[in-house]
Design brief:
alpha+beta; two-stranded antiparallel sheet; elongated
């Protein structure tokens, strides 16, 4: 999408995704994650958080001392 309105909606979706992620995982190493924008056939814009590949996912989320993995 090229219009200023579309870019503003993308930025808002990305900001909301980061805010939700940060609220849920306050100790996460945010350098290991990124927000990806998706636009569906109805032009709805959503953002999802993705984990960049690294050695220790639990450590990146701030759960290094926990046994298992939180659901």
């Amino acid at each position: 999408m090229e219009s200023p309105t579309a870019r503003a909606k993308e930025a808002t979706a990305k900001t909301n995704a980061w805010a939700t992620f940060t609220k849920q995982f306050p100790n996460a190493n945010k350098t290991q994650f990124g927000a990806q924008i998706s636009i569906d056939e109805k032009r709805s814009i959503t953002a999802e958080m993705f984990f960049f590949q690294c050695r220790e996912m639990k450590a990146a989320l701030g759960f290094a001392g926990m046994e298992g993995f939180p659901y």
